[in-house]
Amino acid sequence: MKKCNRSFSLGPIVLLAVLTIGTCVTTAFAQGEAKIVDVLADALNYYNEGDFDKGISVSKALFERADLIPQDSIAIYEVLGILTYAKGDDYHKRSFAYLDKISGVGPCVIHLPREFWPSELRDKWYKILQAKKSLVCPEESKPGIKTIAIMEFDNFSVGKYQKELGPIGKGIADFFEHDFGKISSMKVVERDKINFVLKELELQKSGAVDRSTAVRVGKILGAKYMVFGSITQLDDKHTRMVVRVVSVETSEIIASVDKEAKPEYFKIEKELVEELAKKLDITLSDDVKALIKEGGTESLDATTFYSKGLEYMDRYDYKKAYEFFKKAYDLDNSFVEAKRKMEIYQPLAS
């Protein structure tokens, strides 16, 4: 069977990604499962259009097929969960039940959750995984793959910049996550999975993230490296970003980088990603370096709006999250991360 390596946009929400496993499609797909893909694509289009009941109806009809494989059932339950969740608070419990059905098929058959899951569904999934002792699945510990988890950055800015930048540490950590994710030898732990563990351990940030906290969280997440850092903006022309990498095995800081410059966080973050990769003995090809340079935004205001969107997303306030992601994208139409998040939460904003 021919391999595929697709890149997905959230035009109408990662449609083909629903049935794609890693970089190869399943055997059933090759034998004619395109019809299932088409139906689920239609269902997700109904999601984007706000016709949730119609999407649920066409998705449920797929269970009448006799040739479903486990991956198919998971994909159908995924879509049903998203559509049911979108119907409102009264339907959330029913939506969570679809996640239980996925875990019944197998919590590690496919790496879940996906980016297009609403944040409350993601948190619920992590709780299910934790109960099944599957918070870290076997495939996440493959030889040669270095698992890295990036903690939210601290904002140590002074004066008015502390308030103006607000939760920018969420956005900076998110940018690091996106860019490290472009390195094939690295597996990046999802930001909200880290937050879930912090909440479960009652370690949700009340101050600076220290080394012992990072190591404790890293062991639960099966991470080899934990990254934590801070930004300090002093005035309109000077800022400092500090990043530390801790070895979970030894609890030692094995890499440290920092940069003082103009508050061009887009540029600083990407430069520090390359510096850290070098210190971790990770060779970056020219193609990967080019990928790292892509994405993000040079607009400080767009970065700030995006960070506020992440904050509201974590609170399950999807209307506010959508508004801030949209503000970020309106300021910079090349800000692809903001566009993806905006398209995820637009159907839930109402």
Count of all domains: 2
**Level-2 CATH architecture of the largest domain:** 3-Layer(aba) Sandwich
How would you spell out the order of helices and strands?
A: EEHHHHHEEHHEHHEEEHHHHH
> What percentage of amino acids are in beta strands?
5-15%
CATH class of the largest domain: Alpha Beta
Helix amount, in percent?
40-55%
User: What structural class should be given to the helix and strand makeup?
Assistant: alpha/beta
- Measured between the Cα atoms of the first and last residue, the distance is 43 Å
Tally of separate helices: 14
- Oligomeric status: single chain
Mean pLDDT: 87
Query: Based on CA inertia axes, which overall geometry fits?
Result: globular
Please tally the β strands and state the result: 8
In a nutshell, what does this entry contain?
The chain is globular, with a radius of gyration of 20 Å. It has helices spanning 27-49, 52-60, 70-86, 92-105, 119-131, 160-165, 168-180, 191-200, 211-221, 265-279, 286-293, 300-314, 318-331, 336-349; strands at 20-21, 24-25, 146-150, 154-155, 186-188, 225-235, 238-247, 253-261.
Q: What secondary-structure arrangement, pairings included, does this model have?
A:
Layout: E1 20-21, E2 24-25, H1 27-49, H2 52-60, H3 70-86, H4 92-105, H5 119-131, E3 146-150, E4 154-155, H6 160-165, H7 168-180, E5 186-188, H8 191-200, H9 211-221, E6 225-235, E7 238-247, E8 253-261, H10 265-279, H11 286-293, H12 300-314, H13 318-331, H14 336-349
Parallel strand pairs: 3-5, 3-6, 4-6
Antiparallel strand pairs: 1-2, 6-7, 7-8
Jot down its keywords:
350 residues; alpha/beta; Rossmann fold; 2 domains; six-stranded mixed beta sheet; two-stranded antiparallel sheet; disordered N terminus
